[in-house]
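User: I've been trying to design a sequence by hand for this structure and keep getting stuck. Would you show me what you'd pick, starting by listing the structure so we're on the same page?

Assistant: Good idea, let's start from the same input. This is the structure you sent:
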């Protein structure tokens, strides 16, 4: 088994001592565990404006960049965890989220939290699996 950190220039840099993702090669599988992404514009390092739908769109763009840097796509995602600061935002987040994934959809947990970095309203992390290279 081996592991390596992922760093995509197309996603925001880590806000602390963590990697954007870790790729684990275990036998014939490539497992990718991403750190949570918030709606930071990677060029401005600021949360995008427009509410939870705009933030979710940016979160997914950031995750797509991290997954691409690890050799994966949304089609490889098997599990997501969504963190919301307000469950009243669930429907708006879910509408945007649903445009990124196709059937069979990944397993998902959605959790209400007291706060997120940079006062974000949504954060999403994913686990992806694909054949190792």
């Amino acid at each position: 088994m081996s592991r390596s950190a992922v760093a995509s220039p197309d996603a925001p840099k880590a806000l602390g001592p963590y990697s954007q993702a870790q790729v684990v090669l275990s036998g014939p599988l490539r497992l990718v565990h991403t750190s949570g992404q918030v709606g930071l514009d990677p060029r401005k390092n600021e949360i995008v404006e427009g509410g939870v739908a705009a933030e979710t769109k940016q979160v997914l763009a950031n995750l797509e960049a991290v997954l691409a840097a690890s050799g994966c796509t949304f089609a490889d995602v098997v599990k997501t965890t969504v963190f919301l600061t307000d469950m009243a935002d669930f429907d708006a987040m879910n509408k945007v989220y649903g445009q990124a994934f196709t059937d069979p959809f990944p397993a998902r947990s959605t959790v209400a939290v007291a706060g997120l970095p940079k006062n974000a309203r949504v954060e999403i992390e994913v686990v992806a699996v694909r054949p190792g290279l």
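That's my pick for every position. To get oriented when you compare it with your attempt: The radius of gyration is 14 Å. The CA atoms of residues 67 and 73 lie 6 Å apart.
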